[in-house]
Amino acid sequence: MKRKNGFKVGLLALVLSFYSCGVYNFSGADIGTATTFQVNFFQNYADQTPGSTIVPGLDRDFTLALQDMINNLTSLSLTGSNGDLVYEGEIVEYKVVPMTATADQRTAQNRLTMAVNVRFFNTTKEDADFERRFSFFYDFDAAASLTSIQAVAHEEIFERLTQDIFNASLGNW
Questions:
Q1: How far apart are CA 84 and CA 67, in angstroms?
Q2: Half-sphere exposure of 65 (CA within 13 A, CB side)
Q3: pLDDT digits (tens, 9 = 90+) for 123-145
Q4: May I ask which residue range the UniProt record assigns to the signal sequence (predicted)?
Q5: Which residues, in sequence order, are bridge partners of residue 171?
Q6: How many separate helices (H) and strands (E) can be counted in the chain?
Q7: Is 150 exposed, middle or buried (0-12, 13-18, 19+ CB in 10 A)?
Q8: Which of 19, 65, 90, 95 has its CB 3.0 to 4.6 Å from that of 158, i.e. a possible disulfide?
Q9: Confidence of residue 25 (pLDDT cuts 50, 70, 90)
């Protein structure tokens, strides 16, 4: 008899723990009373920074990556206008620079750096608004061409930049 009751109590505890997991937010997002967000198109102005270049489609890909990050980590709905949370900005740097050299004065490693300027507006909590520059890089072997590593580099850079933007705007750590 005791064994049956113990099993029932254990089963009930297990079921309740599954239900309670839905309430906890693993992202730590503090969305307050906001229900919608919008990510305006991030124009690519990287060519205005010395040494930077324009990569076709980079602006679209970054904008979509930021939308996906927020969409995947919050319960907010994406909207095209009048969002409770608004992200806008521009890509301001995209360049490759040599990082290390070999003994015979050749480049051994390059660094691809991307920077974005972000303006964040929270219509439900105005003191949360900010404008900030976010930057990240990807190091690669100098023997590799930029086009051969670009997909992997963009994935890593976008992941870090969007996570940093998310943490700055909604992080509740």
A1: 14
A2: 20
A3: 998 799 999 999 999 999 999 99
A4: 1-29
A5: 29
A6: 3, 6
A7: middle
A8: 65
A9: very low
Q: What is the DSSP string of 22-52?
A: TT--TT-B--TT--EEEE---EE-GGGSTT-
pTM of the entire structure? Answer: 0.80
Q: What is the distance between the alpha carbons of residues 156 and 168, in angstroms, rounded to a whole number?
A: 18
CA distance 171 to 153: 25
Confidence of residue 106 (pLDDT cuts 50, 70, 90): confident
Residue 100: per-residue pLDDT: 76
Find tokens 């324009």 and name the residue.
Answer: 54
Contacts (Cβ under 8 Å, ≥6 apart) of 136: 113, 114, 156, 157, 160, 161, 164
Single out the residue of 37, 52, 33 nearest to residue 162, CA to CA.
Answer: 37
Give the span between the Cα atoms of 25 and 101, in whole angstroms. 46
Residue 92 CB burial class (10 angstroms; 0-12, 13-18, ≥19) = buried
Reported confidence tier of residue 61, pLDDT bands at 50, 70, 90? very high
Name beta bridge partners: 128. Answer: none
